[in-house]
Amino acid sequence: MSAGPDFVLRPWEMSDLPLIREAARDPYIPLITTVPAPYSDGAAEAFVREQWERAATGTGYPFAIVRSRDRRPVGAIGLWLRDLPEGRASIGYWMVASGRGQGVARAALRTVTGWALRDLGIPRLQLFVEPWNAASARIAEDVGYRREGLLRGWQQVGDERRDMAVYALLNSDGPGDGRAVATD
Hints:
Residues 7-173 form the N-acetyltransferase domain. By secondary structure, the protein is of the alpha+beta class. It has a single domain, classed as Aminopeptidase (3-Layer(aba) Sandwich), CATH 3.40.630. It contains five helices and seven strands, in the order βαααβββαβαββ. The protein has a seven-stranded mixed sheet with strand order 1-2-3-4-5-7-6, with helices on both faces. It starts with 6 loop residues before the first strand and ends in a 14-residue tail after the last strand.
């Protein structure tokens, strides 16, 4: 799936182990994801198999974010469907340091959001951002997500429970760039 002229979203591959290694070294990514830390090839391979299992069972759509020019993976984005029976799904994304500051996360979020609302017809998408993470909040808002509030003690991050700001986009809202998304 294209995420603009410079990036594609694709299923995870065993060749993505260097991306997982870089993510495992990040001080934050392993705290908020299932990226294994400390890194080992076996744990990274299990992580990739877990992504395949999520897709196969329909619990989510995990994608590696890959730079087109050199086919180097630089991040991940996932659409998680646990709450789909209630008419909502969650999106999460992360970028390794070498992929940040290039508009990649924004393009990936815009792509997955449009696909989820338009093609899958999901009524509500939501994502959760720690209040200090201004870059991630800005990306969500640029794509059209609205901050709805603060969920106190919402998520275990490392050894502590942390607050999360919840952002949402309804199918009827349309994305921030003005393109219609609603399926009607």
